[in-house]
Every structure is written in C-alpha cells, then in structure tokens.
Amino acid sequence: PSSTSQAGSATSIATPGTLSVSTGDSIIVFLTAAQDQTAAFAASDGTNSYTLRQSVYDGSALSAGILVAENVTAGTYAVTGSWSGSRTSNAIFAVGVSGLKPSSYQTGATARQPTPGTGTDGITTGDMTPTEQPACVIGLIISFATLTAPTEGTGFTSVATGWQYGTGSDLA
C-alpha cells in the first residue's frame, strides 16, 4: 500500500509511492477530507477508471470515500485523489488487490463512536455479509480522539499505519 496525509486546504493529494499491479487486479483507494460533509471524491492514475463505491460523513468533522478501479491494466501507478473545494486536512491510502472476482464489490458498513473509551468500537458481522468467494474485507480505522494509532480488529492484519493529518501522531 501507499499512503500519506497533509494539513492545509489542498484540493488533491497523491500517493508518495507507486503500486505495482498485474492485469485483472483491483486498486482500492480510501480518501478523507476534514471539515466538509459534502466532499465529492475522485481518483485517477492516468490509465484506469475509478468508481466511487461509498462516501460517508462521520457526523462531526470528517468525510471519507472509497473508490475502486477494477480489472486494471498491468503497471506501476501513483494515484491522485481529489475533492471539491478546500479542506483543513486530507489523506489518501491506496492498495492493490489480486485474486478477486471483478464487479463483485459490495458497499461497506460504517460506524462512528464520538466518545470512545479504551475498549473496542466497531461494526458487527451482521452489518456486512460477503456473498461471493474469495472475499476480502478491508477496514479503515481513524482515531481523532486519542491521537494514537488504533489497533486492527480481530481477524485483520494491519497493512499500514501512519496517517497523521498534520498532528504528528498516527491516527489511522
């Protein structure tokens, strides 16, 4: 995966590194925009087409979007995410995934915990049931309340942490 974040009011952000993918793979991009509940998300790499699969506002200060390019052309790509208007902080996380059936993506489930404790907050298994195999479940956790990197949930393997959003602390 390749990820970065930035403070300020930019309208786009690019992955700092590239993703190497094979023909037929997918590229999944998570974008965030702080301080706007109406952010319109887009992603591009100059070759593949990205479809917005889900957009959500957390009810407080953060909008997030998930975009997917399916059945991509083999190559090495840097992905640029963009938003409508200006934001106070932005982030991008892009990952290449292989072995999934094209056009089998389901919309995800989201949860927000405005006053988290030290325990676990999340989505229950009843919120999302994969209907095809092989299945891949990707989770994104962002913690603004504690200014620390959250721990991945049971059954997940962390593939990246480090989005800082200008705070100096890992938040995702």
Which secondary structure elements does this structure contain, and how are they paired or packed?
Elements: E1 2-7, E2 12-14, E3 19-21, E4 26-34, E5 41-44, E6 51-57, E7 62-69, E8 75-77, E9 80-83, E10 89-97
Concise account of the structure shown:
By secondary structure, the chain is an all-beta fold. The protein is 0% helix and 33% strand.
Write the element-wise H/E pattern from the N-terminal end onward: EEEEEEEEEE
Strand proportion, as a percent range, falls in 25-35%
| Strand numbers in spatial order across the main sheet | 1-10-4-7-6
Shape: globular
Number of strands: 10
- Rg (C-alpha, Å): 16 Å
Low-pLDDT residue spans: none
How many helices? 0
Helix content class: under 10%
Largest sheet: 5 strands, antiparallel
Describe this structure in words.
The protein is mainly β. The protein has no helices and 10 strands. The chain has strands at residues 2-7, 12-14, 19-21, 26-34, 41-44, 51-57, 62-69, 75-77, 80-83, 89-97. The strands form 3 sheets. The protein has a 5-stranded antiparallel β-sheet with strand order 1-10-4-7-6, with no helix packed on it. Strands 2-9-5 form a 3-stranded antiparallel β-sheet, with no helix packed on it. A two-stranded antiparallel ribbon has the order 3-8. A hairpin with a 4-residue loop joins strand 6 and strand 7.
